[in-house]
Amino acid sequence: MRISTLVLSAGATLALTACGSETEGSFATDDGETGEYVIDNEDGESTMTITTSDGEVNVRSGSSVAVDLPDGFSLISGAQVVSNTVFDQGGTKGSLISFRSSMSPDEVASFYRAQAEDAGVEIQIETTMNGGKMLGGENEATGLTFSVTAYPDDDGMTLGQLTVGEDPG
Q1: Of 14, 83, 90, 113, which has the fewest beta carbons less than 10 angstroms from its beta carbon?
Q2: For the CA atoms of 107, 161, 145, 26, what is the dihedral angle to 10 degrees?
Q3: Which positions ≥6 away from 39 have C-beta within 8 Å?
Q4: Which helix (H) or strand (E) holds 124?
Q5: Hey, CA dihedral for 62, 161, 1, 18, is it positive or negative?
Q6: Residues 26-77: pLDDT tens digits?
Q7: What percent of the chain has pLDDT above 70?
């Protein structure tokens, strides 16, 4: 899949940074890439800017970050956003959304399969395990990548994670 591993790891870094006590700072990687982050303690939103040889990557994360999915994708009606991370690196952008839904894991997977297939995504992986579902694939012509994981929790709800990214490059 085409989405930069730097972008995906930045989202993970931002989430981990938000757990710490620092509210802002900067960093440098072994590859010479640099970045800055800010955590807003009032609403829990975190932002990060990473400068690479390919340009600047902007990442925002938190439960209050607005859902911004590519055309043809939407959050399941009634879903509660637990966390949303959005990234933008010029034309490459995407979202990683963790959510809760009253739909079953099979219903969540079916909902997003339909959206992905309508967007020309070829499903390349599909797994069922311990009552959960996982789907993933891409539209190589447009650079659209997609994955969804849904599994039941102890409260009778479904926990889901949706990742959709665009890399027209």
Answers
A1: 90
A2: 170
A3: 17, 18, 22, 23, 24, 45, 46
A4: strand 122-129
A5: positive
A6: 777 777 777 776 666 566 678 777 777 777 777 888 888 888 888 889 999 9
A7: 80
Instruction: Report the length, in residues, of the chain.
Output: 169
Q: CB within 8 A of 30, min separation 6: which ones?
A: none
CA separation for the pair 128, 131 (Å, rounded):
7
If one counts every other C-beta atom within 10 angstroms of the C-beta of residue 86, the result is 20
Q: What are the residues whose beta carbons fall under 8 Å from the beta carbon of 157, sequence distance 6 or more? A: 100, 101, 102
List Cα–Cα distances, 31 to 6, 15, 34, 92, 167, in angstroms: 11, 21, 9, 21, 22
- The pair of three-digit structure tokens given for residue 87, joined into one six-digit string: 């990234």
